[in-house]
Task: structure prediction
Amino acid sequence: MKIYQLGHITDKKAALKALNVESGGVGIMAKKMELLHFFIKDLKTPAANILKQDALSIGAELAVPSGVILCEKPTYDCILIETRKHMEILSKKELAQPFGLKTVAMELKKFLSIKTYPTQIMGVLNANDDSFFAGSRFKSADAIIHINTMIESGASIIDLGAVSSRPGADEVNAEEELARIKPICDIIQSEKLYEKAVFSVDTYTPDVAEYALNSGFTLINDITGASNDEIIKLAVKHEAKLCIMHMKGTPKTMQKDPTYNDVMVEVSDFFEARISKCEALGLRRENIILDVGIGFGKTLEHNLTLIKNMAHFKVFGCEVLVGASRKSMIHKIIPATTEERLPGTLAIHLKAVENGASIVRCHDVAEHQQALSVLRAVL
Result:
């Protein structure tokens, strides 16, 4: 007999079936193989003590600070450690408990029906002269060549923008933005390139968005997070998807000492509010994409926290986009120029995909296609 430790098993049901486990037991055992961790903020002290005992009674655990048992404070932060099977039990059991545990149960239940989406690559194309990475800037003729290259390399989405959103960038008026993007939109429409890939317009300007949508585009990538109702209405009118990004401040001001009480809570609350707003205006949830906005009003620690915990944002039932391509957070971890940041980009994006992101927005499509293919093989 020999024993060896297994690494992370992504497809647990497939692993059990390969072992010829009895079919009725596959689903039951798969739920026991996944260890989940939930951070619960400001849980009432009596609730923490009840949940601790309920968790222990079924083999789960609630990690609590030392003062909980003595009720030294009215609320505490806790970490719930459980399998999927435990979560099913607790999401029912806590419905009957007081001190806010019914809300805990209802929140846990949301994580039992997480949707999964196939991983897609979104290639970046900038029709301007001031985006932070020069390799993404193209004029009309060269832009079409680059679009075809990205599609052939594995991009299923092309994101076209005419305004730089780098930290400190100046605003551009609607007329100038449209003038920059119009020639490329016209060629995309005339050559029917939208039949080869999904085209996304990176804008928060309604006139620009509408021109692109009339040119065969089917996605609006809005860095202001659907702050303008007109953008939402355009997505509804054209039956297009809308990417809602979180940003604190504006590109001009966003990196001037961004602060959060809890970045996960604030970004999550932001998405909840914006999704509700979109749905109220007629946009279906399945047509909403969420982007946590890496580098948009966030410190390095904020960015790392969002990447490490990206799985949380799947609870909204939307596709989750990650876009850290060649960004300065890499330089803050290890000094590197923009041109030298591809390895760091790949590391961040692969971890984000492993943690739940399904759309990767990047400048280097071929390299990401290879990296993601290898990741799928090893997982």
The radius of gyration is 23 Å.
